[in-house]
Amino acid sequence: MADELNKSSGVPEGISSLSDEKAITEIDIGSFLTEKDNGSAPYDGYREDIRKTEQSLENEIQNLMDDIMNSGPSVNVPRPAGGESPAGDFWASPSEYIDISQSKKSDAPAGAPAPEVGKDEILSMIDSLKADTDNKAEFDSILSDIEKNPKIKPVVPQAPAPEKPKKKPAGGVDIHAEGFEAELAALLGDEPAKEPEPAPAQVSQQAPQQIPRQVPQSEGIPMRKKEPFTVNIPHEPSGAVEIAASSVSSEPPVQVFDLLAGSGGRTVGNVPVEIIEDDGKLTKEEKRRAKIDRKIAEGKNPKVGEIIRKIVLVASVITIIVSSAFLVKTYIYEPMMFKRHQSEVQKIVVQSPENNIGQTVAQEESKYPPGMLAKYKKLYDINSDLRGWISIPGLEIDLPIAHADNNDFYLHRNIYKKRTQYGVPFFDYRIKDFKNLPRNTVIYGHNMHYDDLIFGKLEDYRYLSAFKKSPVIECNTIYGDYSWFVYAAFITNSLPSQDNGYMFTYNWLDISESKFVEYINEVNKRRFYDTGVDIATTDKILTLSTCCYDFDGARLVIIARLKRDGEGAVPDTSQAANNDNPKYPQAWYNANKKTNPYADDSRWSPNK
Fold first, then answer.
1. Half-sphere exposure of 466 (CA within 13 A, CB side)
2. Which of 5, 280, 317, 496 matches a 20 to 30 Å C-alpha distance to 204?
3. Taking Cα atoms as reference points, which of 376, 331, 384, 367 lies closest to residue 349?
């Protein structure tokens, strides 16, 4: 029964029903559409299929017609007229659909001749349509008629007329069409639709081309007129593009396209003018100007930046000059002047005619203190604050000693009373009688840390070997010469906060004999080594104080005993020995990360 239905309805063999997908493409379209309304029983169950098939064919034919209308240079292919069924209007003769003599462009000016179409172009279009359909016989017939149609002639290529907007397919936007992404972006409002870029230019092998650079007008930024920026295209097989600037425009960044992008080149894109590859032909000034203009385009003020840059530069130069001057003054000029003055003062004292006589000034010389040694007269004439002289030959210390009404004046003045960072050794301001020294004669002097001038060499007394080399200190006054035997060297603090609120007072002048004994015991705890020199309650001592750098505010103290009458010129040092556990201020233990074994020790004071 099924075979009979198929034969009567024109269904090809092997097709079970009209709903088969294969039946839609292999059925005799003409007979099917002619007989579909005869009301015969075999079609009663397939009317819906017939309706869908008809609609599909109509859409397909419409799409093919639209493609023909929109393809080719200037071809008008009118829609076939007559009949409701697309099958009834199917192409019978190309001349009914392609009427070259009467076709016109809707946007062409009135009276303009209709453009002719080349036969090869129409054949090519129909070949492409033929490849998309299974009805080969109909298209072969169309191609044959086109080849024989005398109205279709070869034409001379003319400049293409403006293209009409491409008609969208019946179903909406064609996602396969060229430029679909740009159109979609325009519809969505992301960016304006752009025209397709022109094809890459062909590099001539005859002569260099001068291609003007296109500088886009930046919104809100005035463009200044400049000479044209050109691109020289050398005639080299490699196709390299050399970009040279006859003059560089100080405009915002330029959009530059590599003309050889299609042949392995690269797109430069939006780049600042000064970094376009110029093979070193842009000058520094041109690059600087381009950089400034780019900052203007970015909304920055190059003048402010330039002013700040110049201020920083000037400040840096001034800082370097001042620092250099300070370093030269500190490490070159000051030491040189100190040594010069020291040498001058030494010559004054040593070359004095009364130096080896030991005589005092004459009574009639009233401008000098009575009883002053005559060898100090010339130096006293230079500075009446002169009060003595200290000499430690083993440590190369040989300096005058001054005295003022306070302990600050000679911190930064030399014996000439001129400003210097070295100052000059000076007696404690509380000493008033230099003919009869107190029990403790205290002298201060600088230790500059970066050199050994003034009292810097006293650092050697940290070591037992230095003591044995220089066990005697010659410290005189303007009234007499004295020798002192070194008794102790230790470190102490200058502020109570550096030793748990305790200040070891070593610069007292006079105390009782019992207190003096207590003090000597405290010194014995602190000294680096035992010199073997003894001290009696009736002895006078000399204290030299200078700064050191074991911790902030540290002080190095050297104590010496006055040589007794009848003693030898130097003490016996054979009994000298190191102290294994000297006492330091708390700050020293903190700096060296050690535990203070004397934290609970008694605190001596000269006033208790």
1. 18
2. 280
3. 376
How far is Cα 263 from Cα 265, in angstroms, rounded to an integer? Answer: 6
Q: CA-CA distance, 541 to 235, in Å (whole number)?
A: 100
Output Rg (C-alpha) for the chain, integer angstroms. 57
Q: What is the pLDDT of residues 322-374, one digit of tens each?
A: 888 877 877 787 778 877 888 888 888 776 666 666 788 887 788 899 999 99
Q: Which residues contact 146 (CB under 8 A, 6 or more apart)?
A: 94, 98, 119, 122, 123, 126, 152
Residue with structure tokens 């748990």?
Answer: 500
Quote the CA–CA distance of 92 and 83 in Å, as a whole number.
13
Domain spanning 383-591: which CATH class is it, in words? Answer: mainly beta
Residue 386 contacts residue 478 (beta carbons within 8 Å): yes
Judging by DSSP bridges, how do beta strands 440-444 and 541-547 pair with one another?
parallel
Token digits for 477? Answer: 């006054």
For residue 116, give Cα distances in angstroms to 25, 93, 155, 255, 566: 36, 19, 6, 41, 143
Which residues face 527 on adjacent strands? none
Domain boundaries, the chain: 2-148, 210-297, 383-591
Residues 146-201 have pLDDT tens digits of: 667 666 555 455 555 555 555 554 445 555 566 666 666 665 555 554 555 555 54
